[in-house]
Amino acid sequence: MHELKKRIPILGLLFTTLVASAGEPVYQLNAKKDMALSATGMMLCGMPLLSNQTRFYHRSELASLQTEKLWWPGLDKKAHLNWSLSADRISTIIPFGMAVVVGALPWTLANERDGKGGTWTQARTIYTMYMEAWLIQAGIKSMIKTLVNRPRPFLFNPSYSTEDKLLRAEKGGKDSFISGHTSGAFMTAAFVSTVLMHTSEKKHIRWIALALAGAATVTAVQRYRSGDHYPTDILTGAFTGTLTGILVPALHLSGRQAVDLRTGIQYPDGYAPVYTLGLNMSLTTAFNGRHSITISK
């Protein structure tokens, strides 16, 4: 919760900019759906509180960690040799920087669709969706960390003393799997990219998406360099965050909107071509409340 409180001011800036400019709203809130998603995220976040396990190692426990249990030896075997406090700090700063950079989006989205920005209602919708996505990915991350209790790779580094390891392990020596920083960064990148695809017709939006994906990738690399995570922790975190960042906006698409998944262009008639199948056939998706898929000749 402390981390969530720190993010609230930045989120306010972020979501006053990522809005549709005119016409029917791209996204719509639904009381039952949003309560269910929020409750799910909060429940998952709260599950670790029910556990009596400590998230750090005592000296006696650390002495018993003699051999690593590698899940994917070919991928994880060298992770224990990494140790970088600067990489740890960088990987913490970048996710906040990702949100700050998005503050430039009012100029990116200005004057689109005969509008100059968005409404507070639309901003509230995007804010709510992101909070739901954040809670769900954070809850999944916290639940998995509690169930797995995987030691961080730096605890097996032969070049550092027990005192050094104990000092770092105070922040959560048993929280290696999955990487929460990576999950959060990729969730933000996927969420913002998805929202931009749905709300903007400008082609250069793809570069913003690539920049965010790059920032998330740098975060993942720094988590590895710091010695906090194995590659398998990072890959799983990236997958979890990306999936959450895409699915939550998709669940809120307006029933009266359809979006071409290649260009992000909206179609008011409820149908948008997605992929050409050949032989004069195309796959179309209708977001009409039932999310039906049709094949038309």
Tell me the major beta sheet.
3 strands, antiparallel
| Secondary-structure element string | HHHHHHHHHHHEEEEE
Shape: globular
Q: Whole-Å distance between the termini? A: 52 Å
Specify the structural class. Answer: mainly alpha
Percent helix among the residues? 40-55%
How large is the count of helical segments? 11
Sequence of strands across the biggest β-sheet? 3-4-5
* Mean pLDDT, all residues: 75
Strand content: 5-15%
Which stretches are poorly predicted, pLDDT < 50 over at least 5 residues? 1-23, 109-117, 256-264, 268-297
Total strand segments: 5
Radius of gyration: 21 Å
Q: Care to describe what's here?
A:
With 297 residues, the protein is mainly alpha-helical. It is 54% helix and 7% strand. The protein has 11 helices and 5 strands; from the N terminus they run αααααααααααβββββ. The protein has helices spanning 2-15, 31-46, 59-63, 73-76, 85-101, 105-109, 120-148, 162-169, 180-199, 205-225, 231-251; strands at residues 258-259, 266-267, 272-278, 281-286, 292-296. Strands 3-4-5 form a 3-stranded antiparallel sheet, with no helix packed on it. Strand 4 (281-286) and strand 5 (292-296) form a beta hairpin. Helix 7 packs antiparallel against helix 11 and helix 10 packs antiparallel against helix 11. The radius of gyration is 21 Å and the shape is globular. The N and C termini lie far apart (52 Å).
